[in-house]
Design a protein that fits this description.
CATH topology of the largest domain: UDP N-Acetylglucosamine Acyltransferase, domain 1
Low-confidence stretches: none
Number of domains: 2
Shape: globular
CATH architecture of the largest domain: 3 Solenoid
Structural class: alpha/beta
Order of helices and strands: HHEEEEEEEEEEEEEE
CATH class of the largest domain: Mainly Beta
Largest sheet: 5 strands, parallel
Length: 162
Amino acid sequence: MKAAGKESSNPQRILVRALLNSIRSYQVYKTRSGIIARVLRRLARVRYEVLSIMTGADIGIDAKFGSNLRLPHPVGVVIHHEAILGDDCMLMQQVTIGMVEDHCVPRIGSRVYVGAGAKILGQVIIGDDVRIGANAVVLSDVPAGATAVGIPARIIQVPNSA
């Protein structure tokens, strides 16, 4: 039986958390000037490069993501450097969030679950509380609370509007 605090000592989880923290550190020091900020920005960039290799995740260093982004299996996760993700999102392994043409990247809401192997491409907006099934290819907007599956993704469940 695992103790409550033992789950956070998972080495993979520690590496993912360190990767996300290095991205946030880089973004903070990128907005600052001065020699110390330059040194700390370079240090954050080196940490980011090393941790990207160790985790197998390719998250753009300028990607915007909210608090509590979860990557339980980070191998193969690709997030474009211009993508925007909300709070409390969970991305499974082999997820790709990218663009189809110049500056057309997805915006993903909060509390979104993206299943293994799913692709979210182009200038699409994914609403809050959305579930995207494994291996789905999302090429159009998904409303809040909906579930999308398939290639190309289609909405199979929309919340009741009472």
